[in-house]
Amino acid sequence: xxxxxxxxxxxxxxRTSTDYEADIVRDxxxxxxxxxxxxxxxxHVFNLNVGNLALVSVRVPARYAEAAxxxxxxxxxxxxxxxxxxxxDPGAPPAHDPETEARLDxxxxxxxxxxxxxxxxxxx
Length: 124
Fold this sequence. Notes:
By secondary structure, the chain is α+β, with helices and mostly antiparallel strands. Helix content is 33%, strand content 14%. Strands 1-3-2 form a three-stranded antiparallel β-sheet.
């Protein structure tokens, strides 16, 4: 079964008002093999971080929703975080090249962005 689907078929598993927090959650899900994308309604022009103009959500395909919620409910203790930070290699190369990273941010690898079969593309 393909993980490509329409964004309307994806389920919100996390909501915040900050992009960086949503990115961390998306990366945690991705590391666990759960496709995830960040949808934002934040008004970046005015840098609002409250109210409806600041909603940022992380969404996953519906069939991954329960696993994603379980993973996000897990807590990590301070000692585990300390050990992970000490083991991290600050000189390690980026996990993804810039193009791949941009695709992860957009969800293009997981969301079907094609026109529906019954619609023709607009002509100029």
